Amino acid sequence: MSLSDFIYKRKSIRKYESEGLDEKLLQDVQNYFAKLRPLYCDIAVNFSIVSKESVKGIASLYSPHYIVVTSENKKGYLVNVGFMLQQVDLYLSSIGLGGCWLGMASPKETLIGGGGGMEFVIVFAFGKPSEGLYRELDDFKRKPLDKISNTADSRLEVARLAPSALNLQNYYFVTDDSNTIHVYCAKAGVLTLKRLAKMREIDVGIALAHLYVANSDCFTFFEEANPVEIKGYFYVGSVTLNSQVC
């Protein structure tokens, strides 16, 4: 099976076996980080595998293993992290491991493995699931395509299936006459919690990761100089699926 096949069956795992993974399997995960495709090649990102004792918050309810992600704080860095870490999520699913995004967890140390100038972004739990690892397509609880896109573009079905914070899917896709897909993120309201506001951009990156994995040989991301404005959303970037980059 290809990595894209797991877009249609992965799910967030919240129950894990207490026994940790063996060192070889942890090293396999660590090695996969070097294979990740970034959305922005000029943003430094660090992925650190840590133990349960190194995280705080609701993460204590989850797995013995966590990925802590730090990044340079540059334009697009949250989208970039979502894009890269969702590739890891799908990889874990492909090797029989589960994972879960933890928006309310954080490392006990401010910086882990990042060095100066790196900012903590997100914690991700992973390990051997003690519940069913996969689900049927009918079990996905997602908005219909016409709620997140201006057209019934079948290529966006993989983005529609992407996980997002509270399943809110705070993004919108516009396919124009040139067959370019323009990507937008919902603006945060004044009462939106800061953490949830950040997750909106991470969620856009997650959805873009699904588009990339399903079209890895022809995915191009770029930013237009004068994008069309959409009320309630801000422009993130545009995608074409007709040439290979990076």
Describe this structure in words.
The chain is α+β, with helices and mostly antiparallel strands. The protein has helices at 23-33, 77-94, 157-160, 194-214; strands at residues 45-51, 55-56, 65-72, 98-102, 106-107, 118-127, 171-175, 181-186, 220-222, 233-240. The strands form three sheets. A four-stranded antiparallel beta sheet has the order 1-3-6-4, with helices on one face. Strands 7-8-10-9 form a four-stranded antiparallel beta sheet, with helices on one face. Helix 2 (77-94) crosses helix 4 (194-214). The longest helix is centred in the C-terminal third of the chain and has 21 residues, at 194-214. The protein is globular, with a radius of gyration of 17 Å. The model has no long low-confidence stretch (mean pLDDT 91).
Short description:
The chain is α+β, with helices and mostly antiparallel strands and 246 residues long. 22% of the residues lie in helices and 23% in strands.
What structural class results from the helix and strand content? alpha+beta
Q: The biggest beta sheet, please?
A: 4 strands, antiparallel
Low-confidence stretches: none
Distance between the termini: 24 Å
Q: Figure out the total of helices.
A: 4
Q: What coarse outline follows from CA principal-axis ratios?
A: globular
Q: Please give the radius of gyration in angstroms.
A: 17 Å
What is the topology?
Elements: H1 23-33, E1 45-51, E2 55-56, E3 65-72, H2 77-94, E4 98-102, E5 106-107, E6 118-127, H3 157-160, E7 171-175, E8 181-186, H4 194-214, E9 220-222, E10 233-240
Helix pairs in contact: 2-4
